[in-house]
Design goal:
mainly alpha, Four Helix Bundle (Hemerythrin (Met), subunit A), 2 domains, 7 helices, about 70% helix, about 0% strand, membrane
Length: about 300
């Protein structure tokens, strides 16, 4: 092989970081599972929250050190073009896996809305449900569940043109601000990069605050909870996981802001920022789908 065609591929030394990352993920998921089980059982005091906290700290510190090592290796020019391409493909496949993750939840929503609710009302080939739930009228959202003694339906649903519309405006605006910050890198304008990236982070944080208030309002005033039937379950699973992704994306952008303040990123070397911006655009697109199918078209008495 000629010297011109050979391209060195950097291989790091043995590392214990993947083990710590796996431990952090395990504790985080285990803690979340315990919290959900305790909520179902009505238990107030549980170790699940502490397990979740420990898992989050382990995973957070591991990723912080791991990504710091990758950044330092990049600054030492240890990465070849082939290595950089592998990062691009890795981020692309990661986002694709996230697309499939949300497609599963959207699929569950459509399946329940278009088929299951009708079957419960006696439509189709599943036969009448009169023997099990006499007088049940299929509707979406399901304000009155078949077994009202076990699953009390919500008194109201969240109006789509109030807080959800505000959050939609916030995230769509943030897609523009992060794009402007990206162009600032290409222009070599450090001040513009920092200002517009900070604006994007502020919009993300405001979104999370608004969603937190929306959840409080749903639980405290509307009776819309995880225990209020299939509508509450699909609503909180879809919006809750999206909120978790917005939180992760906000952390990613905060890290990018810290790097920008330290003088990182050049026009030809800024994939860390680009990967974070790709992820941010992805969560924005998912929210648009949520706003349309969960709030706008799925929240009225006639459904979608």
């Amino acid at each position: 092989m000629s010297e011109q065609s050979y391209e060195a591929y950097y291989v790091p030394h043995n590392s214990k970081l993947p083990i710590f990352a796996s431990l952090g993920i395990f504790l985080t998921v285990f803690g979340i599972g315990n919290i959900l089980n305790d909520m179902s059982a009505g238990t107030e005091h549980s170790a699940g929250m502490w397990v979740l906290l420990v898992g989050g700290l382990v995973l957070g510190f591991t990723l912080f050190y791991w990504f710091g090592t990758v950044i330092e290796e990049n600054h030492q020019k240890l990465y070849s073009d082939q290595m950089n391409r592998s990062y691009v493909w890795a981020m692309g496949w990661f986002i694709f896996s996230e697309v499939m993750f949300f497609m599963a939840f959207f699929g569950a929503l459509f399946y329940v809305r278009f088929w299951v609710v009708g079957w419960l009302g006696g439509e189709g080939d599943r036969g009448p449900s009169e023997l099990l739930w006499p007088g049940f009228t299929p509707e979406w959202p399901m304000m009155s569940n078949p077994e009202t003694d076990k699953f009390v339906g919500p008194a109201e649903v969240i109006p789509s043109l109030q807080l959800p519309l505000l959050n939609t405006a916030l995230l769509i605006t943030s897609s523009f601000t992060v794009t402007i910050a990206h162009h600032a890198i290409k222009e070599g304008n450090r001040k513009k990069l920092i200002n517009w990236l900070a604006a994007t982070i502020a919009l993300g944080l405001i979104f999370l605050v608004v969603q937190g208030y929306e959840y409080y309002h749903a639980y405290a005033d509307l009776g819309l909870t995880l225990a209020s039937g299939i509508y509450g379950t699909t609503f909180f699973m879809l919006t809750g996981f999206h909120g978790a992704h917005v939180t992760l994306g906000t952390f990613m952008l905060i890290v990018m802001l810290g790097r920008a303040l330290k003088g990182h990123f050049e026009a030809d070397d800024c994939f860390g920022f680009e990967a974070a911006s790709w992820y941010w655009h992805f969560v924005d697109v998912v929210w648009v789908g949520l706003f349309i199918f969960v709030y706008l078209l799925g929240g009225g008495p006639t459904g979608f």
